[in-house]
Amino acid sequence: GAVVSQHPSRVICKSGTSVKIECRSLDFQATTMFWYRQFPKQSLMLMATSNEGSKATYEQGVEKDKFLINHASLTLSTLTVTSAHPEDSSFYICSARVASDQPQHFGDGTRLSIL
Amino acid sequence: SQQGEEDPQALSIQEGENATMNCSYKTSINNLQWYRQNSGRGLVHLILIRSNEREKHSGRLRVTLDTSKKSSSLLITASRAADTASYFCATDDGGGFKTIFGAGTRLFVKA
Questions:
Q1: Which of B41, B96, B104 sits opposite A101 (nearest CB)?
Q2: Which of A81, A85, B5, B82 is deepest in the core (most CB within 10 A)?
Q3: Chain A residues with CB-CB distance to B100 below 8 A
Q4: Do B102 and A43 touch (CB under 8 A)?
């Protein structure tokens, strides 16, 4: 149980393109979903926390107009990287959890490469 | 700054040996979690230990928590090559709103 599906797993696109990444909890309802960014050989950097039906809470330094997060249902959250540029290239990972005293369940990540 | 800091940053051992990783954190917590990440993949939850617990076991994994020292350790016994991965500790921010990950320990188990 507790499977989180993240798509796509890899994206390569031109500078200026907008890219949407989906995160779905397949067998549970997630009250909260998280979006992380990870640079090579580094830890996860929390970008934003999203609760179903409400606006995402962005971490300091993360541009909300650049990284649009939508959490339309208890099983789906999306991250859209708008007008992506090479510096946005990274590994993006989503996670979902049922409650604050429960662990997070992670998707397999999306490797985004902007040319 | 990171709430959790692991040491060592990297660890290389022979198959069959035990691997111990440590984590320190700064503020009060409700629970502490350990995760594993294989290269290029998402994280897999290993163990959650609550602030009122001192030790927890799961298979070859043993986690301890010392809230007075604000530290935790993860012990992997009888390591296998397949245990090669990065291991992260993570703590809640006290309010339970988000989880903060440490820098991680990269474990390499040689066959």
A1: B96
A2: A81
A3: 46
A4: yes
